[in-house]
Amino acid sequence: MAREILQGIAVSAGVSIGKAFFTNRRRRSVSFEIIPPGAADSEVARLEQAASDVRDDLARARDNVPAELRDHAAIINSHMMICQDPKLIRAASQRIRDHHICAEWALDQAVEAIAAAFSAIEDPYIRERVQDVRAVAERIQTRLVGRHAEPLRTPDERIVLMAHDLTPADAMGLPTVKIMSFATAEGGKTSHTGILARSLQIPAVVGVSSLEESVADGDLVIVDALRGLIVVDPDETELADYTDLKYQFENYQKSIRRQSTLPAETLDGYRIDVQANIELVEEVPQVLDGGGDGVGLYRTEYAFLNRRTSPTEEELYDEYSQLAGLLSPRRVVFRTLDVGADKMLSEQSQLEEPNPALGLRAIRFCLRHQDVFRRQLRAILRASAHGSASLLFPMISGLHELRQAKHILNEVRAELDAAGLPYDPDMPVGIMVELPSAVMISEALAQEVDFFSIGTNDLIQYSLGIDRGNKHVSYLYQPLHPAIVRSIKYVVDSAHRMGISVCVCGEVASDPYCLPILLGMQIDAISIAPQAIPGIKHILRRTNMEECKELLRDVLSASTVSTINRMVKETIYNRFPEELTFFSSMLDQDD
């Protein structure tokens, strides 16, 4: 292959140089076939049998997961649930009966319908779960054509693993000691491949759309999982430069990890908590190993995805109490269900909305579907008896919603009291400030809760009126837009006047250019991706609070994004030239 540079998404930081080794290629095409009259029942039975066989295959894969990955085996359970998900199997069966088409085509069409529904979802974590559905459907397609899933090729030497996609079952069946890095054509920032790679500290780049066309088995490649690049057939200069960068990064990682358990305290003594955003209990070891002060945002949606019915109270309680126990005495903040409408809850009827991002989602959904909400609140409250837990309501727009949610919470507390079930009666309750309306009345809201978490990702999108996932307007996603900086400052000041704490969540909190501005506002905590914790704590410990306050004053006096970005880049780069080599930043757009 000729030299080429491919762009993807870095999901596990690092650099590797080695030979490409493909373990699977693009999924097979599906043919459209009409079935004979009267054959629908047998075709549906064929589909159901294939799904059942795949579920059995996955169960065997889960039971044979190697010891070093056993904590992640539960991820395979979600794929087993997809095999029974009515949104997939029942929908495909209905297509067979309605349109007299073969099972393969019906399944393919059902997957595309799910993908279309997921594409409208704001939360990237939930949106990217469609990859799980595609992966399971591909296994079912293999069974439908009369074959077992082909075992993945295993390498004889250390390699750079290439694949169209890697399912949890695939990845866990590979000899990790022989894998220097991953690169896949599919996947996004929150893919399970990324979670596994970060856990194993293996560099990984996903979403490399032209990977299969541009890379051949045995090609020499560089995986730059700092910038999200794959360099195919590098020249001698690139090899030398990347060998040096790899050495620098590995030394930097060793250095910051040695100090990761030290407090996140500035040079002049200002200390904040550095917590993690996670979706799975299996991520807790990475949080603790990286020196995290707890979990500032536990996304509870995962347990509700790709199921025949929503989880029971006991299932949720088992998950939440395990998490609280593992983290104790550190805090875990449980965010209540933040789904868009009822797209992910199989037992609810489908709700068509012209604009799901502004529709029945998060707290609005919970207030509409109180049976689901109460079940989750009971589980969270009961889990609070096993550790330090807090409760977080998302997407609060005003006092009425908040008071409704608190009223239901108090009713659930009374139910637990009557049943004699233990819980922490003083469990802190907070809200996500992520809507402009909540910003404007933040002082009133602060009088009703124990803490604020600022959801910067949504706040930026809703305040600036842009869809970050839309490539035509994504350049307008500007974290240091004057309106955003002033909004965050207003919320922090309102909270502190009322005597409550503020945690900043989202990518802004882990951006080394944005962090000093947040520090200048005297925030109390940040909650970031687990893999970012050691590096951010390292930068925090080399930061001067008074300098951050001075930078904030300058930023607040500026009126354009370009002025602020230029000012911030200059100041921060001069202070951290070496560290910034290993960080990516959102500050790549001007106004």
UniProtKB/TrEMBL annotation:
<dbReference type="Pfam" id="PF02896">
    <property type="entry name" value="PEP-utilizers_C"/>
</dbReference>
<dbReference type="InterPro" id="IPR036618">
    <property type="entry name" value="PtsI_HPr-bd_sf"/>
</dbReference>
<dbReference type="GO" id="GO:0008965">
    <property type="term" value="F:phosphoenolpyruvate-protein phosphotransferase activity"/>
</dbReference>
<feature type="binding site">
    <location>
        <begin position="457"/>
        <end position="458"/>
    </location>
    <ligand>
        <name>phosphoenolpyruvate</name>
    </ligand>
</feature>
<keyword id="KW-0762">Sugar transport</keyword>
<dbReference type="InterPro" id="IPR023151">
    <property type="entry name" value="PEP_util_CS"/>
</dbReference>
<dbReference type="InterPro" id="IPR040442">
    <property type="entry name" value="Pyrv_kinase-like_dom_sf"/>
</dbReference>
<feature type="binding site">
    <location>
        <position position="434"/>
    </location>
    <ligand>
        <name>Mg(2+)</name>
    </ligand>
</feature>
<feature type="binding site">
    <location>
        <position position="468"/>
    </location>
    <ligand>
        <name>phosphoenolpyruvate</name>
    </ligand>
</feature>
<keyword id="KW-0813">Transport</keyword>
<feature type="domain" description="PEP-utilising enzyme C-terminal">
    <location>
        <begin position="256"/>
        <end position="544"/>
    </location>
</feature>
<feature type="active site" description="Proton donor">
    <location>
        <position position="505"/>
    </location>
</feature>
<comment type="function">
    <text>General (non sugar-specific) component of the phosphoenolpyruvate-dependent sugar phosphotransferase system (sugar PTS). This major carbohydrate active-transport system catalyzes the phosphorylation of incoming sugar substrates concomitantly with their translocation across the cell membrane. Enzyme I transfers the phosphoryl group from phosphoenolpyruvate (PEP) to the phosphoryl carrier protein (HPr).</text>
</comment>
<keyword id="KW-0670">Pyruvate</keyword>
<feature type="domain" description="Phosphotransferase system enzyme I N-terminal">
    <location>
        <begin position="7"/>
        <end position="129"/>
    </location>
</feature>
<keyword id="KW-0460">Magnesium</keyword>
<keyword id="KW-0963">Cytoplasm</keyword>
<dbReference type="InterPro" id="IPR008731">
    <property type="entry name" value="PTS_EIN"/>
</dbReference>
<keyword id="KW-0418">Kinase</keyword>
<keyword id="KW-0479">Metal-binding</keyword>
<dbReference type="InterPro" id="IPR050499">
    <property type="entry name" value="PEP-utilizing_PTS_enzyme"/>
</dbReference>
<dbReference type="GO" id="GO:0005737">
    <property type="term" value="C:cytoplasm"/>
</dbReference>
<dbReference type="InterPro" id="IPR006318">
    <property type="entry name" value="PTS_EI-like"/>
</dbReference>
<dbReference type="GO" id="GO:0016301">
    <property type="term" value="F:kinase activity"/>
</dbReference>
<dbReference type="Pfam" id="PF00391">
    <property type="entry name" value="PEP-utilizers"/>
</dbReference>
<dbReference type="Pfam" id="PF05524">
    <property type="entry name" value="PEP-utilisers_N"/>
</dbReference>
<dbReference type="InterPro" id="IPR000121">
    <property type="entry name" value="PEP_util_C"/>
</dbReference>
<feature type="binding site">
    <location>
        <position position="299"/>
    </location>
    <ligand>
        <name>phosphoenolpyruvate</name>
    </ligand>
</feature>
<feature type="domain" description="PEP-utilising enzyme mobile">
    <location>
        <begin position="157"/>
        <end position="228"/>
    </location>
</feature>
<keyword id="KW-0808">Transferase</keyword>
<dbReference type="GO" id="GO:0046872">
    <property type="term" value="F:metal ion binding"/>
</dbReference>
<dbReference type="InterPro" id="IPR024692">
    <property type="entry name" value="PTS_EI"/>
</dbReference>
<comment type="similarity">
    <text>Belongs to the PEP-utilizing enzyme family.</text>
</comment>
<dbReference type="InterPro" id="IPR015813">
    <property type="entry name" value="Pyrv/PenolPyrv_kinase-like_dom"/>
</dbReference>
<dbReference type="InterPro" id="IPR036637">
    <property type="entry name" value="Phosphohistidine_dom_sf"/>
</dbReference>
<feature type="binding site">
    <location>
        <position position="458"/>
    </location>
    <ligand>
        <name>Mg(2+)</name>
    </ligand>
</feature>
<feature type="active site" description="Tele-phosphohistidine intermediate">
    <location>
        <position position="192"/>
    </location>
</feature>
<dbReference type="InterPro" id="IPR008279">
    <property type="entry name" value="PEP-util_enz_mobile_dom"/>
</dbReference>
<keyword id="KW-0598">Phosphotransferase system</keyword>
<dbReference type="GO" id="GO:0009401">
    <property type="term" value="P:phosphoenolpyruvate-dependent sugar phosphotransferase system"/>
</dbReference>
<protein>
    <recommendedName>
        <fullName>Phosphoenolpyruvate-protein phosphotransferase</fullName>
        <ecNumber>2.7.3.9</ecNumber>
    </recommendedName>
</protein>
<feature type="binding site">
    <location>
        <position position="335"/>
    </location>
    <ligand>
        <name>phosphoenolpyruvate</name>
    </ligand>
</feature>
